[in-house]
Design a protein that fits this description.
Keywords: Cell inner membrane, Cell membrane, Membrane, Transmembrane, Transmembrane helix. The chain crosses the membrane at residues 12-28. InterPro entries: LipoPS_assembly_LptC-rel, LPS_export_LptC, LptC. This protein has one helix at 4-28; strands spanning 45-56, 59-71, 77-79, 83-88, 94-100, 102-106, 111-122, 127-137, 142-152, 156-166, 172-182. 16% of the residues are buried. With 187 residues, the chain is mainly β. The protein has a single domain, classed as lipopolysaccharide transport protein A fold.
Length: 187
């Protein structure tokens, strides 16, 4: 005859054994680490051997060439290598050239940020400008900078800080002239 106490022991033993096994297995379970994924911040496209032209009424106005263009997720364009920009007059002649070490097109402002050993050469007036950084706005057709600039004409060299000019560098204003050197009589 089976006593009620014996029935309880027979039922509880397997349940207790399963519970102990379950807890032991849970204690040995390896924890998985959750790794947060970072959003990709690199370029969404890369173009090599870039040679772009801007025209107005089927007339060539500006030509830009560079080794590569990177388009970023915000649609800005990065030009990590030397950039050359050629401005053309109404007759189609190359009137001014601009070169820099790199540049960036900022889409939200529609401006080009031109950086690193910037040189502008106006072939008509035989004048050059050197600076470390400037901005070019294709809508207003203006270039400007707050950085130190040197402008060399056939007779003088102007040193200044800040400059505003039209894009072909035929008309410019230095914001603060810090020095003028006459080179007219130098050999």
């Amino acid at each position: 005859m089976t006593t009620p106490l014996r029935v309880v022991k027979l039922v509880l033993r397997p349940i207790l054994g399963l519970m102990i096994t379950f807890f032991l297995l849970m204690a040995c379970k390896e924890e998985k680490k959750v790794i947060a994924k970072k959003a990709y911040e690199g370029p969404i496209s890369e173009i090599y051997g870039v040679n772009m032209t801007y025209s107005d009424s089927a007339r060539l106005v500006v030509r830009m060439s560079t080794e590569s263009q990177l388009t970023m997720p915000n649609e800005d364009k990065v030009y990590p290598h030397e950039v050359r920009v050629f401005f053309f007059d109404k007759l189609g002649n190359n009137s001014t050239t601009l070169r820099s070490d790199s540049a960036r097109y900022i889409r939200m402002k529609n401006i080009y940020h031109i950086m690193g050993r910037v040189l502008i050469n106006n072939q008509i007036k035989h004048e050059t400008l050197t600076t470390d950084e400037l901005y070019w706005n294709p809508d207003t057709k203006k270039i400007y900078t707050d950085k130190p600039v040197d402008v060399k004409t056939s007779e003088e060299v102007f040193h200044g800080v800040g400059m505003d000019a039209n894009q072909d560098f035929t008309d410019y204003t230095l914001r603060k002239v810090t020095g003028v050197v006459s080179v007219k009589n130098l050999p």
